[in-house]
């Protein structure tokens, strides 16, 4: 890769097998890099589902305890070995979540037996959202983001009364933080009303 800004060109940057921060082509290159491995997994390890987003790859399966133990473990082992053959590293932060703790512990035990660094957790964070394999809805992180949005809204409200153009900070600063993960966790009527109030505050014409 090379970087070009204002007509100036950087030295050549070797991206290697990692994600190059700020590279607009990163997602496309990752898809090309692991395409054959994921395609093989889709075909030969049904019903285990494989999904990839940039450098995050997940495997999931629905079924009885025996079905999951019989299919998910060999699928995970194969995927790990294939990725390592490309020079990829399996993160020590890799986590396993299950709808039943007994199943999760059995899977974690089998993963340890074959040398996979995957730990069983009650919940794992994925793209800023806590996932529990459908067991329950966790809102602690959601509340934290709501509080952050409120603080940002007060700052934007103050600035917008001085400089009108500061109102533009609402969408990338306040709304982006406050509405994150609403597609997964949803919003209550009170939360929607609070977001509307924040939008009014950031306009510079109203304050609670």
What does this structure look like?
The protein has 208 residues and is mostly helical. It has 7 helices and 8 strands, in the order ββαββαβαβββαααα. It has helices at 26-44, 65-85, 101-113, 140-162, 170-178, 182-185, 189-202, and strands at residues 4-5, 8-9, 49-53, 56-60, 95-96, 119-120, 124-126, 129-131. It has a two-stranded antiparallel ribbon with strand order 1-2. Strands 3-4 form a two-stranded antiparallel ribbon. α3 links the parallel β5 and β6. α1 packs across α2, α2 runs parallel beside α3 and α4 runs antiparallel to α5.
Task: Give structural attributes.
50% helix; 208 residues; mainly alpha; two-stranded antiparallel ribbon; single chain; two-stranded antiparallel sheet; 8 strands
Fold blueprint:
Blueprint lengths: L3 E2 L2 E2 L16 H19 L4 E5 L2 E5 L4 H21 L9 E2 L4 H13 L5 E2 L3 E3 L2 E3 L8 H23 L7 H9 L3 H4 L3 H14 L6
Parallel strand pairs: 5-6
Antiparallel strand pairs: 1-2, 3-4, 7-8
Helix pairs in contact: 1-2, 2-3, 4-5, 4-7, 5-7
Q: Mind describing the biggest β-sheet?
A: 2 strands, antiparallel
Rounded Rg: 22 Å
Q: What portion of residues is helical? A: 40-55%
Order of helices and strands: EEHEEHEHEEEHHHH
User: If you average the pLDDT, what whole number results?
Assistant: 84
For the largest sheet, list the strands in their spatial order.
1-2
* Percent range for β-strand residues: 5-15%
- What is the 3D form? flat
Unreliable spans: none
Based on DSSP secondary structure assignment, what is the total number of beta strands? 8
Distance between the termini: 50 Å
What is the structural class?
Answer: mainly alpha
């Amino acid at each position: 890769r090379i970087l070009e800004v204002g007509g100036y060109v950087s030295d050549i940057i070797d991206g290697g097998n990692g994600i190059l921060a700020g590279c607009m082509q990163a997602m496309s290159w990752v898809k090309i890099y692991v395409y054959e491995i994921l395609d093989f997994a889709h075909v030969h390890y049904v019903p285990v589902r494989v999904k990839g987003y940039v450098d995050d790859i997940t495997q999931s399966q629905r079924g009885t305890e025996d079905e999951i133990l019989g299919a998910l473990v060999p699928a995970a082992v194969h995927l790990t070995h294939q990725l390592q053959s490309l020079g990829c590293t399996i993160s020590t932060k890799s986590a396993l979540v299950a709808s039943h703790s007994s199943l999760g512990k059995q899977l974690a035990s089998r993963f340890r037996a074959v040398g996979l660094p995957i730990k069983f957790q009650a919940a794992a964070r994925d793209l800023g959202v806590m996932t529990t394999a459908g067991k329950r809805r966790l809102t602690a992180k959601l509340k934290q983001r709501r509080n952050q949005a409120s603080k940002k809204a007060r700052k934007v409200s103050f600035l917008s009364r001085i400089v009108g153009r500061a109102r533009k900070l609402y969408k990338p600063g306040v709304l982006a933080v406050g509405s994150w993960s609403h597609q997964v966790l949803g919003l209550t009527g009170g939360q929607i009303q609070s977001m509307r109030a924040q939008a009014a505050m950031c306009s510079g014409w109203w304050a609670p």
